[in-house]
Amino acid sequence: MDISIIIVNWNSLHHLRKCLTSMYSQPPDVEFEVIVVDNASYDGCDEMLKKGFPRVIFIQSKKNHGFAYANNLGFQHSTGKTLLFLNPDTEIISNAVKIMYTNLQTMPDAGAIGCRLLNTDLSLQTSCIQPYPTVLNQAFDIDYLKFLFPTLKLWGMKPLFRSNDKPQEVEVISGACIMVKRSVFEEVNQFSTDYFMYSEDLDLCYKINQTGYKTYYVNSSQIIHHGGKSTKSKQNYFGIVLMRESVSKFMEKYRGKKSAYFYKSVMTFVSICRMMLIIILMPSAIILRKQDTILVAFTKWKKIFRWSIGYEKWAKELTSNSQVSHGPSKSIN
User: Fold this and answer.
1) Rounded to an integer, what distance in angstroms lies between the CA atom of residue 146 and that of residue 233?
2) Angle value at C-alpha 314, between 311 and 320, nearest 5 degrees
3) Which candidate, 325, 330, 322, places its Cα nearest to that of 66?
4) Which residues pair with 262 in a beta bridge?
5) How far apart are CA 125 and CA 144, in angstroms?
6) By mean pLDDT, which of 155-164, 174-183, 284-293, 322-331 is the weakest?
7) What is the pLDDT of residue 326?
8) Do 40 and 61 form a contact (C-beta atoms < 8 A)?
9) Distance between CA 205 and CA 174 in Å, rounded?
10) Which parts of 120-235 fold into alpha helices (H)?
11) Of all residues in the chain, what percent carry a pLDDT higher than 70?
12) How distant, in Å, are the alpha carbons of 286, 287, 302 from that of 291?
């Protein structure tokens, strides 16, 4: 098998159907298999796959141990020499998979490769490549600054704005669509289950680079990622907090406890500043009838502030509990 495409589903039945439809309607010109792991959502995706996509290998995880764990579970059932980890809320455009595969195979120093991710409205999703997190780039992670200075080294996304279809070396590829050589994935001991969700892609890219391989981004391969803006929705404070906890875990793991503590301290200061600014802007927002938007922003930074001083303990507990061995699962071909 040339490529094993591994998709982790969690209450994403509608998106998963669209993802698989796009894939099978324009399959890569190589031998491939698709493995879907349901991460204990039991949303009926097994029946949908039986009826609409009988070739897909389905694995039912009995418990949700996190995104990294589920991807590793799918890997254990795979046979491909190349692995494509793909989110269910994606849609393949043209020969995106084949472009990534061809480039990955022709570069001996490449360990992993990513593509250009687009939002539902086909606008660019700048998070498809990132730098490794630092206290500085996390403190100044402001959409407006990125809009003004998109090619600044601090953001690590300069290759997105180059008119170059050749693979370009980057630090981190988004876990929404990341293709990895099987031998490299095995060498770095798969995805780290130190994270329940978020930062597992940071960790994987870091481990790949530490082994001497490189991670690349290729501009000519494009995939729609519908969930790219989900962490900014007003309901997803869970993701906003858990993302910070995962970044803190990454810093502690590779840079020490002092670095993680400093990161949290800086986020305390940043969140206070952001809340004060929002309070100052509140009268103007009321006049412009945008009070709902600004209240959402205030709640977001209040949650981040509470996390930074240790009041959102569930995030740390959830991350700690994700470090489990592989349990029982059921595979259906």
Assistant:
1) 19
2) 120
3) 322
4) none
5) 14
6) 322-331
7) 41
8) yes
9) 9
10) 135-139, 143-148, 182-187, 200-210
11) 93
12) 5, 8, 16
Here the tokens at position 79 are: 């046979």
* Selection from 313, 331, 329 nearest residue 321 by Cα: 313
Over residues 37-70, the pLDDT tens digits come to 999 999 999 999 999 999 999 999 999 989 999 9
CA dihedral (141, 142, 144, 146) in degrees, to 10, reads 0
- Find the helix or strand (DSSP H, E) in which 218 lies: strand 214-225
- Give the three-class secondary structure for 112: strand
Strand partners, 170: 215
CA pair distance 182, 208, nearest whole angstrom: 12
At 291, list the tokens.
Answer: 């009070």
Task: Tell me the backbone φ, ψ of residue 235, rounded to 5 degrees.
Answer: -85, -20
Measured CA to CA, the distance from residue 34 to residue 333 in angstroms comes to: 10
Given the structure tokens 């809340």, which residue do they identify? 275
CB contact at 8 A, 80 and 186 = no
Return the closest-CA partner of residue 186 out of 76, 105, 85.
76
The H-assigned helical ranges of the chain are: 13-25, 45-52, 67-76, 96-105, 135-139, 143-148, 182-187, 200-210, 237-255, 257-287, 291-308, 313-321
**Contact 19/91 with Cβ under 8 angstroms?**
yes
Name the pTM for this structure: 0.91
Give the model's confidence band at 163: pLDDT under 50 very low, under 70 low, under 90 confident, else very high: confident
Q: Is 51 left (phi over 0), alpha (psi -120 to 50) or beta?
A: alpha
Higher pLDDT, 233 or 62: 62
Which one-letter DSSP state was computed for residue 295? H
Q: 3: exposed, middle or buried (C-beta count within 10 Å: 0-12, 13-18, 19+)?
A: buried
